[in-house]
Amino acid sequence: MRRYGDWYNLDYYHHLARSVRNLAVEQIGNRIDAFKVIANNLIANDDLSPAKEFLESIVIRIDTALDESYRCIESSGREAFKQTLAKDYTFWHQCEERWGKGPGYRSAVRDITDDEFAKECLQDSRKVIIGLINNEWDAIATLMESLLREKDLTTAAT
């Protein structure tokens, strides 16, 4: 805590970034998983075998885009919270003050963090994260639309 959350043995922002990534998985990943169930059912349907290769390529490209989105969201989430929390000396002092006062240090720091996240100063970071997740979802949806348009153009040309 004395290093304001950034130390080789404890990277507080890494843990916050992982939470941001988990939020993205909940928001985006569940939608993509539902899409992939449909796509995989279509791939497995022998009556649609001419579309199998096309559908498999879409799933692969969506998985690649999803992985990149998660990396971007995690990295951006880390920086968004670091910019705000690294300068919040009161927060870090509260966490440090709790050290050595018996069991429950982690729970206490979690509670202090929850209180900090309820403050207005972190609302901007939260808005940035939500906006980023929405933008990444929009990018994936746009990719899906463009893949379908590519197929339409390819089919129309033949």
Explained architecture:
This protein is mainly alpha-helical and 158 residues long. It has one domain. The chain is 80% helix and 3% strand. It is built from five helices and two strands; from the N terminus they run ββααααα. The chain has helices at residues 12-44, 52-85, 89-98, 105-118, 123-157; strands at 6-7, 10-11. Strands 1-2 form a two-stranded antiparallel ribbon. The model has no long low-confidence stretch (mean pLDDT 85).
Q: What's the arrangement of secondary structure elements?
A:
Blueprint: E1 6-7, E2 10-11, H1 12-44, H2 52-85, H3 89-98, H4 105-118, H5 123-157
Antiparallel strand pairs: 1-2
Features:
158 residues; mainly alpha
Produce a short descriptive summary:
By secondary structure, this protein is mainly alpha-helical. The chain is built from five helices and two strands. 80% of the residues lie in helices and 3% in strands.
Spatial strand arrangement across the major sheet = 1-2
- Major sheet description: 2 strands, antiparallel
> Number of helical segments?
5
How many domains is the backbone divided into? 1
Rg computed from alpha carbons, rounded to a whole number of angstroms? 22 Å
**H/E element order:** EEHHHHH
Q: State the helicity in percent bands.
A: over 70%
Structural class: mainly alpha
Shape designation: elongated
Strand content: under 5%
Which spans have pLDDT < 50 for at least 5 consecutive residues? none
Distance between the termini: 64 Å
Total beta strands: 2
Q: Please state the average pLDDT score.
A: 85
